[in-house]
Amino acid sequence: MFNVGGMELVVIGVVALVVLGPDKLPGAMRQLGTFMGELRRISRGFQTDLRSALDEAERDAERERLAAEKAAQGSAPATQPEAGTAPDPGAAMAAARAELDAIEATRDQAESEPAEAAETSDSAAGEDEPST
What we know:
Layout: H1 6-73, H2 89-128
């Protein structure tokens, strides 16, 4: 931080010993250590707050970008649940049931179309033949 080497620390220690004396030096060093610890705690708290604010801004920007993409595709933007809330299992089950019903309806329709086409072709072939 201050780019202080070993020799500089020795010089600072000797000057502090001369200025403060051997009686006050331990108390001054204790106060300096307390001050440095408090400064580090304040700095760490500031960094944590700044990082969380930046992360929140990035998440908001990402949500807006995704919403804009969905709007551009023509679908309504999906709302995301709040952090810490559990997803609604009833809604998920209802969506899965609706999707399963749609798949079954499509399958039933596909199975019945060949049978109807065969009946139609049989009746059309029967109309062309003369009856005896």
